[in-house]
Amino acid sequence: MEKILEFNGRKYTGVYFELGNVPLIIIKAKKGYVACGYIDKAASEKHGDVACFVTNVKTFEDVFRAKVKGMTTWAEEIGIREGMSVKKALEAVDAQAD
């Protein structure tokens, strides 16, 4: 399922797919994304993605409440850090798009 999500006055594209015991979830911003642990960090790094990763999420709302557990080099370069709220991470990604 793909869905337009609104969070903190911004719109994102949410992707949700039932896969195994937990769903695959991605929230796409204009210049990057937040993904669950199903997305491979090494592949994201290889492709130059601005990406950060969260765990233990089953809904879009869970993602928005989560803390960043990992990120690519490009996400680090814009200030995303482990333990940062997804809200702050998305703000950093959005700042790159403005």
Descriptive overview:
There is one protein chain. The protein contains 4 helices and 6 strands. The protein is of the alpha+beta class. It has a single domain, classed as Hypothetical protein YunC (Hypothetical protein Ta1206 fold, 2-Layer Sandwich), CATH 3.30.1980. The protein has a 6-stranded mixed sheet with strand order 1-2-3-4-5-6. Strand 1 (about 1-5) and strand 2 (about 10-15) form a beta hairpin. The longest helix has 12 residues, at about 85-95.
Please report the total strand number as a whole number: 6
User: Percent range for helical residues?
Assistant: 25-40%
Name the strands of the widest sheet in spatial order: 1-2-3-4-5-6
Architecture in CATH?
Answer: 2-Layer Sandwich
The CATH superfamily title: Hypothetical protein YunC
The gyration radius over C-alpha positions equals: 12 Å
What gap, in angstroms, lies between the N and C termini? 27 Å
Rounded average pLDDT: 94
Give the topology.
Blueprint lengths: L1 E6 L2 E8 L6 E5 L4 E3 L5 H6 L4 E3 L6 H6 L4 E2 L1 H5 L8 H12 L1
Parallel strand pairs: 4-5
Antiparallel strand pairs: 1-2, 2-3, 3-4, 5-6
